[in-house]
Design a protein that fits this description.
Largest sheet: 8 strands, parallel
Strand content: 15-25%
Strand order of the largest sheet: 1-2-3-4-5-6-7-8
Number of helices: 9
Oligomer: single chain
């Protein structure tokens, strides 16, 4: 049952010295490709080194909204240059808005807008982080879509309500679900799983965070995306093989994976 984990952070220290074993487990679990996200452009070299080691890894470059205080105009040039420097760069991000842990909204919006422009110019999708910011993000994206044109992308690790989910589907985004769908408290997320069209559905781990049941409380890793696939299949009255196949096809379409 081949599948693609569309959002990982295996460059983090919690994986240090263990990547070969972690890779063996994701291969045994049928994970055929990984998309490695980026929190800050300073991670780029380390992420690229991982892709050099493991041919199934593609990656992104961008600035996370919780790092938006580091934003300056030269960083946009740096992200653009890095994105153009390696054909394995398949996305810009992760970027977006996070008003749960931070209140520097203007700085976040400036960084997000600039990265949307880079993605549009380079014809790359964006990996979008959105926490406690769905309404503000939609209000922001509407005029941008109208005045500058839309950008392809994915709402990653989505935990919004069905109503919010539809807002982003209407903007043309894919929606990616993580181990949150296995949490007992995530009823709204499971309702969102039901309404995403087959051709816009993705799965991820967001490892090392948010390990799915039955691994809650442990470090998450790409092999555990199988639990997300299983739960999404159950919610959608499908079977895991079908969900793995369609989410793999969708990931290849969005990120232009071969």
């Amino acid at each position: 049952m081949p599948s693609i984990d569309t959002h990982v952070h295996i460059n983090f220290d919690s994986f240090a010295g263990e990547l070969e074993a972690v890779r063996e487990r994701w291969q045994q679990a049928g994970v055929s490709r990984l998309v490695h996200s980026c929190v800050e452009p300073s991670e780029f070299a380390a992420i690229r080194d991982i892709a050099d080691r493991f041919e199934e890894v593609s990656f992104a470059v961008g600035l996370h909204p919780l790092s938006a205080d580091k934003w300056h105009d030269a960083l946009a040039d740096d992200i653009r240059a890095k994105a153009q420097s390696d054909p394995r760069v398949v996305a810009i991000g992760e970027t977006g808005l996070d008003f749960f842990k931070a209140e520097n909204g203007d700085k976040q919006k400036a960084a997000f807008t600039a990265q949307l422009d880079i993605a549009r110019d380079l014809d790359l999708p964006v990996i979008i982080h959105c926490r406690d910011a769905a309404e503000k993000m939609v209000e922001m994206l509407g005029p941008i879509w109208r005045d500058r044109g839309p950008v392809r992308g994915v709402m990653h690790c989505w935990s919004g309500t069905p109503e919010q989910t539809q807002w982003f589907l209407d903007l043309g985004f894919y929606v990616s679900f993580s181990g949150i769908v296995t949490f007992k408290s995530a009823k709204g997320v499971r309702e969102s799983v039901k309404i995403v069209p087959d051709d816009r559905l993705l799965v991820e781990t967001d490892c090392p965070f948010l390990a799915p049941a039955p691994h809650r409380g442990k470090r998450n890793e790409p092999a555990f995306v199988a639990h997300v696939v299983d739960r999404v299949a159950e919610i959608r009255n499908s079977d895991p093989e079908a969900i793995a196949a369609l989410t793999t096809a969708n990931a290849c379409q969005l990120f232009r994976l071969h």
